[in-house]
Predict the 3D structure of the following.
Amino acid sequence: MRTADPTQRPRLVVLDFDGTFTDVEAEAGPFYEAFHEDARAILGDYEAEWARAQATIAEDPGMHGWLHDGRIVAPGDADPYLRATVIMNMILDERGMLTDLDERTAVLQKLYFDNYPKADTVFRPEAKEVVEALLASDVPVWVVTNSATRHVQEKIDRLDPKGREALHVIGDARKFIVTDPATPDPRFDGIPATVQLDDLARPIYPRRGHYFEVLRGVWNDTGTKPEETLVAGDIFELDLMLPALLGSEVMLVTKPRTADFEKTGCAALERGSVTDDLHAVLARLG
Ligand SMILES: [Mg+2]
């Protein structure tokens, strides 16, 4: 599958949004405040449990991850939004509350979607310059994110990059769902059920069928192929593992809390690299 020339210039750039364009830790204050208020309505007093769970996650974010449908699908410390959900799951487990998983997922998704819009908008310092330069290039740039399209659009409006109208945004990509795509695809058939990384004691599950459908739509729209695509994101198994296995070049854009296994896992890929600066994306367009 990975026969593309590693030096070739990408013909499509796909970017994640939260944590990739933005400084997620810096913008999360008001999100947490509102989230805590809603959580208190469900849990009553829970501050000590929250602090305990947060410390447990920080010790081993790879193993205390975002659990979806019985599988860990992302590290628990990957961003404040994820961390809040993981902590809530740990508290609910401890208390034996909301044991019906569908019901629990609905409650946690509502907490997330209700409060995500209350977060500040804090962009990475280089975001505007890099996005403007990308938009000025001849390569199409698409944002593919789990967050709601409208909220991400609003944030990008605030960034107000030159060439904004050329920036495509697809939200609700549900990169966390391990499933087959609605329409089968031989490219997806070749994706293994699990991948084992050297520095992580659990498997990664790359068969993210909804994410695949979104990416396939972008490839169809742009007339490009996976191996002609550069995907940049801040969470290895959510943003990058699937496109990497499909043959895309991938770039992990790190934050201070990026887990070590993500960096070593991405760097070990044939077409993977690790950076803490979005200029690296631009550099690939020459
Ligand atoms: Mg992200």
